[in-house]
Design a protein that fits this description.
The structure is a homodimer of 336-residue chains. With 336 residues, chain A is of the alpha/beta class. The first copy, chain A, has 13 helices and 12 strands. Chain A is 45% helix and 16% strand. Chain A has a 6-stranded parallel beta sheet with strand order 2-1-3-4-5-11, sandwiched between helices. A 4-stranded parallel beta sheet of chain A has the order 7-6-8-9, sandwiched between helices. Chain A binds a DNA duplex (30 and 30 nucleotides) through helix 2 and helix 4.
Chain lengths: 336, 336
DNA sequence: AACGCGTTTTGTAACGATTGAAATTTTTTG
DNA sequence: CAAAAAATTTCAATCGTTACAAAACGCGTT
């Protein structure tokens, strides 16, 4: 005997399963005493409704699946908080899975979620070239799907994103105004993460606007998004004149900063460093890191609102694109 | 929105659903021709098996649920990697949920997982006084349950933990040998996290062994486990003579370090700082942090092995307790 | 033609929960 | 006090799939 079912409760109280079902759903046709007796027994026996069964009957689970590319940063946590906030108030449950920036894991997790027949998926693709067919299949099956943060690129779907290009522009502008002339860009792979391309565009625009020459040698695309990738990028810049670095993420920026420090360069005097996708990581390193901080909670909220709208009204699928604001936070790493 | 079912195939080919089911499962009792005919039709009609129905039928999902207290540190990520490693090789899927150190969320997530009929639960309790009845109920229902990292305390269950007491002893011994005399302990609340008590015990033993006087004024229990709690603890120690701090986690240690730096104390010259539960956070701060690093991946692996054993052989429930080793890593924050 | 004996197919009851209709009990009413 | 009305409770079918038991079929033997 494993999970407690309504049958178990029915047997225990010697009533029919339908009475139990009705009682648990607060059906007014069940006498108050009976209802309370049943609800008490359910609680006592540790009954949890089985949405698998409900879903089989109705085709819905009142559950939303979320795929994040990583969950070891507070960034993801805040987005998820936003999602849960909205879902909770709309009586939806949330299950979360991380792809750890690995397309195979992403696929695997999507499979699990589909097995549980979740009502909708909020996803952040780890690589816009991977799993495209899977997402297309999800769309074909009319399972509501919303993307956030990363540009899904070759899939046409509703999404909640940040204006990467503009924000990157302002950040680089800040570096230029602080007197930096040779600003490097350490970006995620252009073929994998399209946001990296957009921030690169913003970077180029800022250079152009202020009449700085573009030096392709100080634009580096990293393999992954770990600290080590930031460090490796710095190594690649070794022989180039560089007085500022704009990194695609805070993680890359911090990796770069540590490597810079270890080779004796002062931050920000010798090299200013700025990141993106601010998390509290940015405040625990020294010097504290200048970064662009998307409104993560809001991003989660918007994504949840979108998916719930799609679930309750499937025809509203107009592939909305919501832009969430991001705050540029100036800190020590780019001062002076 | 309509899916093709085996019933549709049966109707189309004028055979029974059981024949279709068997044919699709390559049952040898179905004639080869029939089988091929059915499989061809299934393909042609775009049939996809409905896993919800299968789950309901078998009462198992081949999925394991994991509850972590937080997922915004790499610590959790590594444990999860270990769990996934084993589960993947044993053909189990994994779903993960974070309680964010909140007992209500912990309960909520446990409920969701049970609702989806996961085959077993790997959990790290956020507070050993909370949700006890829920876990007991889970055990009563014979849903396999394994704890890791945090001592579950008042629940008798298989668990994978670290020898907190011994490791704390060695770490404090290291501080003493480096000449520190007034070592503070910044611990998690003793009433909430039992590991905090164990590390405290190790701390006291080390003091005693080396004949140092115990000063209760420099033992602080924090509210939570955030950076800010580390900083607050330092404030509380303000008027006490302190030349070293042993913090319950790296996060607390880093929070303490930052506060110390901001009030002009040098680390490690004025105050040495050591943490616990090493993550790569410890290497990105400066000075780099001395810490105790449990073998996180291994911890996850062991927990997964335990739960899979329990699932496949429920009677093997002997409440095993596996101790995973932890490495003490000496870094700049306690040097000199 | 009837029998036996594999081979192949089908009927049916589950799995857990819901629900319209039917059956039962209780209450009201003439 | 019986019949009608109202209030409760139960029956039975359903969702997609599986599996046991039973039935039907084919084929060779007498």
């Amino acid at each position: 005997m494993k999970y407690v079912t309504i049958k178990d409760i029915a047997r225990e109280l010697v009533v029919s399963v339908s009475t139990v079902s009705r009682a648990l759903n607060n059906d007014p046709s069940i006498r108050k005493e009976t209802r309370e007796k049943i609800q008490a027994a359910a609680k006592r026996m540790g009954y949890v409704p089985n949405p698998v069964a409900t879903n089989l009957k109705f085709g819905r689970t009142k559950t939303i699946g979320v795929i994040v590319p990583e969950m070891s940063t507070p960034y993801a946590a805040k987005v998820i908080d936003g999602i849960q906030d909205i879902c909770y108030h709309n009586n939806y449950k949330v299950i979360i899975a991380s792809s750890s920036e690995d397309a195979d894991k992403e696929r695997e997790n999507l499979d699990i979620m589909m097995q549980f027949m979740i009502d909708g998926i909020i996803a952040c693709r780890c690589d816009y070239n991977k799993n495209t067919e899977l997402y297309e299949k999800i769309q074909e099956q009319h399972i509501p799907l919303v993307f956030y943060d990363r540009i899904p690129r070759n899939i046409d779907a509703p999404q909640v994103i940040v204006d990467d290009e503009t924000k990157a522009f302002f950040l680089v502008e800040h570096l230029i105004r602080a007197g930096r002339k040779n600003i490097a860009y350490i970006g995620a792979n252009f073929e994998t993460v399209y946001n990296s391309v957009l921030r690169y565009k913003g970077y180029r625009e800022a250079l152009q606007r202020y009449g700085l020459e573009y030096n392709p040698n100080i634009v580096v695309q990293t393999e992954g998004l770990h600290y080590s990738d930031g460090a490796t990028a710095v190594d690649k810049l070794r022989h180039e004149k560089t007085d500022a670095i704009f990194a695609f993420t805070d993680t890359l920026a911090i990796g770069a900063m540590n490597r810079l420090k270890s080779i004796g360069r002062n931050i920000p005097k010798d090299v200013a460093v700025a990141g993106f996708s601010g998390t509290n990581l940015a405040t625990i390193v020294s010097p504290q890191l200048t970064t662009v901080e998307p409104r993560q909670f809001e991003m989660g909220q918007k994504a949840a609102e979108l998916i719930i709208k799609l679930i309750s009204n499937p025809s509203s699928s107009n592939n909305e694109c919501i832009i969430v604001d991001a705050d540029i936070i100036y800190r020590e790493s780019t001062e002076g």
